[in-house]
Amino acid sequence: MKFIRKLFIALIILMIIVFSIIFLVGNSYYTRALKEKPLITRVEEITSKENFVKFEEMSSYYRNAVISIEDHRYYSHGPIDFIAIGRAIFTNIKRRAFREGGSTITQQVAKNVILSQERSWVRKIAEVFAAFDLEKNYSKREIFELYVNTSYFGDGYYGIYDASYGYYNKSPLDLSLDESSMLAGIPNAPSVYAPTVNPTLAKQRQYQVINSMLEYGYISKDEALSIK
Hints:
By secondary structure, this protein is mainly α. 67% of the residues lie in helices and 0% in strands. The chain has a single domain, classed as Biosynthetic peptidoglycan transglycosylase-like (Penicillin binding protein transpeptidase fold).
């Protein structure tokens, strides 16, 4: 029993040391990014652009489509959604492949605006620090605006303004359910889901968006069927 107790204590100490190192490395990564350019400066550069689209300047269909497919609990959780992370881990283990990431919209903004697209655990930890900083300084609506204005929609279109006019030649405010559900699905994998690249896969992704909107009560069954 004494050996087991000592082993247990040693494991706890080891875990504390490991998590402390991860914490320090991730925080250092985020701090360096802020030294290069402060958060407020990064945000102001985006929001001051001529074609920056505000929350109320988007179709409600589009806003709801994005929330349903990207982060359906967006307004009820903090910077990190531990339920989504747990579900993603379970799904990935079950399928023996990395299919879900569990990132919130805030985390994606942290990646797009503050950090980079680098795939590494250090960047992922730094993303957590950035997400908490974002939600401490900006509202959910403001963070949502940053997300859709910095996302890549394929075909050279960055931000919902360019994507809306580029694909449909209309304002984001005038997007229909059909158009909104198509655009909401693209940023997940623009090289795959852009309708100009692969219309079949783009339509399949759109169906996923429609199903999510139906599941979370944003549209009726008749509306979903009308698109399908």
